[in-house]
Structure formats: structure tokens, C-alpha cells
Specification:
The chain is α+β, with helices and mostly antiparallel strands. The chain has helices spanning 2-17, 172-199, and strands spanning 25-27, 36-37, 59-61, 65-69, 78-82, 86-104, 109-114, 123-129, 132-152, 158-164. Strands 1, 2, 3, 4, 5, 6, 7, 8, 9 and 10 form a ten-stranded antiparallel β-sheet that branches. This is Putative secreted protein with PEP-CTERM sorting signal.
């Protein structure tokens, strides 16, 4: 009976200390129309031409980010496109990893990840986008939680498969709780092992 209780407590400590997971998302721009602004399509709303409702990821885009017909690296025949010098993606649930494919035939660009909505707060990472006439993969993990990404470049820069793994780094107190729980189990495990050895 005690062994079951110990195993239950051990499992509870482990599960309680695991990092929280946000719902992962993959933005492939399927479901939108050619030249449609994305807007709140990924917030359970619609794009500028009425497409939707889209999936509710809590993600919105400024009007300068749209969907266009193109040949993507994989997936549907629509991709995201920068329709001005910059566009902002707000993610209300936050993220700490972002990856995507991009095509920047004219000029280089970047994607700045910010701790606040609308490109405010502290810049947590800056992903460089060297000029490329073919699709390239880019992305980064970083410390902290970002609430927005600002896409910077020339009009016509394309993006596809914008993805967030959604992992949240456990805070130090959770790790301390896990270590304390594991250490507290050592004496009981030794006693049980000693009893078993004595009975054999």
C-alpha cells in the first residue's frame, strides 16, 4: 500500500513539474483567398474577403500581411506575404519558439520577436532573413515568452508553415519542487530495498 502511495506521489511530482504546453500552431494560409489580408482568420475570425472562420489560435495580423497564390515548400498553394515594409503577428497565448519557410527574392529582411503585443516590450530574438530567391527554413528558440513577431522586409517577401512548438520553460520553483520530491523518496526506497534483501 505504501509503495503505491509513493509511486502516486512520485508521478504527481513529475507531472506537476513538467513544462506547460500551449496549443501548437502551423499557419499554412489554407482556407484564405488569393490577395486576402489574413487579419483575424487565425483568431477564429475571418480574412478581409470574408474567408473563415479560421482556427482559433489567438493570432491576429496587421493588414499589411496577406495570403497569395504561390508554390510553397509543401502544403496548399497559398502562402503568406508581406505587403509593405513590415507586418505584425500578435499571439495572445505567447510562444518561445518560432520557425517558418521564407522567400525574399529582392532584399534581405528579419523577424523580430517581442515580449509585448504589437511589437512592444523587450526584443527577445531577431531572426535574420538573407536574400533568397528560393525557399529557406528559418527560426529560433529563445528565453522568455514572446507575444508578437514583426516581419520586416520588402513587399512581396513570402512566408509559409509559420510554426510554434509552444514549449514553456519551467520556472526555477518547479524544478526545485521536482528535486525536493525526488530526494524525499530516497530514504523510503532504501528501507524497502533493505527489507526485500533481508527476506530473501
Amino acid at each position: 500500500m505504501k509503495l503505491r502511495l509513493i509511486l502516486f506521489l512520485f508521478t504527481f511530482i513529475i507531472l506537476g513539474s513538467l513544462p506547460a504546453r500551449a496549443i501548437p500552431f502551423v499557419l499554412d494560409f489554407g482556407g484564405l483567398k488569393n490577395t486576402e489580408q489574413v487579419l483575424s482568420f487565425y483568431d477564429g475570425g475571418t480574412g478581409s474577403l470574408g474567408s473563415g472562420p479560421g482556427p482559433n489560435y489567438g493570432i491576429t495580423f496587421t493588414p499589411s500581411f496577406g495570403a497569395v497564390s504561390a508554390v510553397p515548400p509543401y502544403g496548399p498553394s497559398l502562402v503568406g506575404q508581406l505587403n509593405g515594409p513590415s507586418a505584425t503577428m500578435d499571439v495572445s497565448g505567447g510562444f518561445n519558439l518560432l520557425s517558418f519557410y521564407y522567400e525574399a527574392a529582392d532584399n534581405s529582411g528579419s523577424v523580430a520577436l517581442w515580449s509585448g503585443l504589437d511589437g512592444t516590450g523587450v526584443m527577445l530574438a531577431d531572426i535574420s532573413l538573407p536574400t533568397s530567391a528560393t525557399w529557406n527554413a528559418a527560426g529560433t528558440a529563445f528565453a522568455g515568452t514572446a507575444l508578437s513577431a514583426v516581419f520586416i522586409g520588402t513587399s512581396g517577401t513570402k512566408f509559409d508553415q509559420i510554426t510554434d512548438a509552444g514549449l514553456v520553460i519551467p520556472e526555477p520553483s518547479s524544478l526545485l519542487l521536482l528535486a525536493t520530491g525526488l530526494i524525499s523518496l530516497i530514504p523510503e526506497c532504501r528501507r524497502r530495498l533493505a527489507r526485500r534483501v533481508a527476506h530473501t
